[in-house]
């Protein structure tokens, strides 16, 4: 496909997404209907679609409209690509620009438009991030890095870099987070590469890695990962602390990959059903990596940024408080309860914690950190509570 044809395809997919279809499904359906598109074409179309979704508001302002065509026009204008070179009407290119489209004046954007956030989210974002609000929002307008955690039980950073290099995957050490690498070339080879297949590296964002490393966990502690999902935190806990990790999730099937991932990492992680938790001895540490809006990771799932509603955000807080309360029942007296989200909004972070502490005065907060999203890492919040009697 020519570059113009890829943009034309992106326009078509965006129109489907704007009609209400989730982004991933719209892209998969497009690829099924257009079998001639090779893997590079699919990756390019996907890249254009996600670039637009991350910057949908500013693209609409720069493209003077809200449909796929206007959004792609707005994207090109923001990225400095001459729209005339794409909207040529030749072959499978988008139709040439109309006179209206050609008469463009640079728009003046509101703060929320420039931040590419919904109007109602912007004040919450600013309250959560203070003087970092604008830079954090800008970071969510760009593609995320591909971050890896070196499994230090299986090898060193150097051995991981060498193994990746033998598969022609170039990686560099993260500037601030120990044991974290950023894959900078041939990222699509990772999953089949030796380093990943042998468990020497695992995909995990730098902010999650930094947070896990800071937690007060000792070798041999019994840790319950109460909201384990696919097991990203369970694997990091097992690798970093050599802890005995039990994984639980209210949706058991979400943990289906944990045994395979744990075997690859040579970690021992016990996966349990909700009804079996009561039969286990109480834990030294309980982690609640709770469901949330994902506002710190919106560059990865940009359509979620535009779908979130105020009611859903309040519902998240209610669920988070209830999860903390349920999970804390499995903690030993004096144990450590850790709460984390990949959100930067106080509604889901400090406010959730305050409600939990209000109803549970037998806990005190001993540490709290909001990791601000940057080009190097996602946003992440974590808070450590200790049982005091
Ligand atoms: C943010 S995800 C967890 C991500 C995972 N810890 C990781 O690092 O890959 C939140 C998980 O919480 C689970 N969940 C939702 N409500 C829950 C509840 N009441 N009890 C336990 N888990 C719950 C969801 O099924 C989801 O898998």
Automatic annotation (TrEMBL):
Binding annotation for S-adenosyl-L-methionine: 249, 289
**Protein origin, superkingdom:** Bacteria
The annotated active site, in chain numbering, is 342 (nucleophile)
Q: Which residues form a coiled coil?
A: none
Cross-referenced SUPFAM superfamilies, in alphabetical order? S-adenosyl-L-methionine-dependent methyltransferases
Family annotation (Gene3D superfamilies): Sun protein, domain 3, Vaccinia Virus protein VP39
Query: Ranges for the SAM-dependent MTase RsmB/NOP-type domain?
Result: 136-389
Please tell me whether the keyword RNA-binding is annotated for this protein. yes
What UniProt keywords apply to this chain's record, in alphabetical order?
Methyltransferase, RNA-binding, S-adenosyl-L-methionine, Transferase
Please give one Gene Ontology molecular function term for this protein: RNA methyltransferase activity
Q: Per its UniProt record, what InterPro entries does this chain match?
A: MeTrfase_RsmB-F_NOP2_cat (IPR049560), MeTrfase_RsmB-F_NOP2_dom (IPR001678), RCMT (IPR023267), RsmB-like_ferredoxin (IPR054728), SAM-dependent_MTases_sf (IPR029063)
Question: Which BP terms in the Gene Ontology apply to this protein?
Answer: RNA methylation
Q: Which Pfam families match?
A: Methyltr_RsmB-F (PF01189), RsmF-B_ferredox (PF22458)
Q: Record's family?
A: Belongs to the class I-like SAM-binding methyltransferase superfamily. RsmB/NOP family.
Its recorded name reads: 16S rRNA (Cytosine967-C5)-methyltransferase
Q: Which organism is it from?
A: Cognatiyoonia sediminum
